[in-house]
Amino acid sequence: KTVTGFEGGKIYPGYRYLFPIIFEGDHLGSVEFSISFEGIEDKLKSLMPESSFQLMMTKESTIDRVFEWHYSFFQQSDWHENYFVEAPSLSSVNQDIEANSRIQLLLKQVKESPVLKRAIEDKESFSFFTIDRGNGYFINFLEFKNTDNKHAGYILSYTKHNAIIALEGEYRLYKLLTIFSLFVVLFLLAIVLKQMASAKAYHIKLERFIDLQSSIVILSNGKKFTFANRSFYDFFGFKDLEAFKQKYDCICECFVVNDHFFSLDKVKEDEEQWVESLLNIPARKRIVSMIDQTKVAHAFSVGINTFDEQFYVVNFTDISDTMIEKLQLEKQATRDELTNAYNRAYFKNSIKSIRSFYEDQKLDTGLIFFDIDHFKQINDTYGHDIGDSVLKELVKRVQTKLRASDHLVRWGGEEFIVAVGSDSLESVAKVAEHLRHDIESFSFANVEKVTCSFGVAIGSSDTPIESIISDADKKLYEAKAAGRNQVQK
User: What is the reported pTM?
Assistant: First the structure.
């Protein structure tokens, strides 16, 4: 069988390639060749001239395997006592590393870190950064395995990158580090995999790797995309790419329209598509908002890397935690401050996705428009503090009677809207009647009795939401004109 990958030998380790020769079903022999790390390092250096690279191998791949009289071919790594590098006397790569004062300074700065030591012992790829004398540096550890699929060491890259200094305060460096490290690892992985077997094996391994990323990663040309990782499906709640494409042509259709975020309305006339538009703005402004399958809004920093002549690797890293205070995401942006019901801004930004959810369930969109009867009289009689208390009690009570898929919105003052998925106007009216009766029967803390008037309407996915709101509003006024404390449909 074909064997490819790193292998420690009795004399010297290297990347081994073994290909069987088969003729008419008979095994005639095999062709075998090896590539030293210096050959790979030359290729990486030509592609990333600002970076330095080094192969750090486990003791099992080096000292434990070679003949005793070849121990001098290796020396213990400065990063960890259980790892070895090629002796500088034999490796021009390690001669350059030892002669590089910048790298030696970084070694002295971070090699004693217990966190770094534990990360190395975890035997998984990782990255970290350090800042020295006004310069930022990334050090990446790309884990590789031997032909037995066991951990064999790391490929190290040392890269100067001062962008992290400017971005550190505003976006939390560790988030941007994740983005940068992802693309460095993907790039290095692609280079190494090109030395192995076939393009098919390369794509399989690359997809598996990207599926492990917590951020959303897609392959897109700006108009369509051909690949998405597991985090994409977990976020949107789709089984596969075909299921997503039945509803959307592009992930860009999921971008929430908001002044604080990039969305399709910000693509200029002379720009062909959204990826090009994002590339034309500063990296710190490449932020979009999307709504997950539970209807919760998230903020994402967008990283873009060229994959080939047509496609880009686009990475969406969730930065909601860092943006929540600045942009008032979640509760501050979507909830009414007094009652904790959703606000009109939430309704405006989310009604499209809410209706899409109902449509997926084969339901129309029903609206229940209601307000508190004689609320001004409550404020005049008991005071505005008691009026506010009534509003809060009312919302809390109504929320206990609604389903998870229903949405209660404070429309303004004492007016509220409930969005429900339903198959008929009669069903919407039954929900409204249930709420009306429950409110009338409820004992409020400071007011003897509270009643509400209701107007209901329903519309299919083709009906503009403004029309459904208008119809429900008219029915509400009919209920008030007919004596209040009733439902009109």
Answer: 0.39
